[in-house]
Amino acid sequence: MVDDTAKGHYNLLKNYLLSYGLNSRISNVADSFRLGRVLYARLTNSGNTGLKLYLPLNLDDYKDSKIPLKSAEGIKQYEDVPVFLYVRSDLSVKRALELIDDVMIKHGIARKHDMEEVDHVKELVK
């Protein structure tokens, strides 16, 4: 992640996911968010200017929506989170937050606390 906007979007999305009480695990490829053993979201780098947010959603539920979701079916590492959204703009961040809310409501997870302003990019650049 070279772009400062992408870093800001990463921090915002990660802080939002952590506010639901999810645990984050950073690997070489992605930042995965789990509660127990269930994977609820995965954030990956999408070049220098954006991110991809993978979520456990059904693509058919959003067929008539204006949200441009894509399928990652057939890729083993994304079988638990088969739908993704490119996050490159403020509008896509807004849509990503709505989708995260949809996933959490679907699984019955309430927000544990208000979102904290923590800079998580510093952890990545060690």
What this model shows, in words?
- This protein has 126 residues and is α+β, with helices and mostly antiparallel strands.
- It has a single domain (4-124), classed as Alpha-Beta Complex (Aspartate Aminotransferase, domain 1), CATH 3.90.1150.
- Helices cover 29% and strands 24% of the residues.
- The protein has 3 helices and 6 strands, in the order H-E-E-E-E-E-E-H-H.
- It has helices at 4-18, 90-106, 121-124, and strands spanning 23-26, 30-35, 38-45, 51-55, 70-71, 83-87.
- Strands 1-2-3-4-6-5 form a 6-stranded antiparallel sheet, covered by helices on one side.
- A hairpin with a 2-residue loop joins strand 2 and strand 3 (38-45).
- Helix 1 packs parallel to helix 2.
- The longest helix has 17 residues, at 90-106.
Brief summary of the model shown:
29% of the residues lie in helices and 24% in strands. The chain has helices spanning 4-18, 90-106, 121-124; strands spanning 23-26, 30-35, 38-45, 51-55, 70-71, 83-87.
Topology:
Elements: H1 4-18, E1 23-26, E2 30-35, E3 38-45, E4 51-55, E5 70-71, E6 83-87, H2 90-106, H3 121-124
Antiparallel strand pairs: 1-2, 2-3, 3-4, 4-6, 5-6
Distance between the termini: 14 Å
Total strand count, please? 6
Largest sheet: 6 strands, antiparallel
CATH architecture field: Alpha-Beta Complex
Brief descriptors of the model:
126 residues; Aspartate Aminotransferase, domain 1; alpha+beta; 3 helices
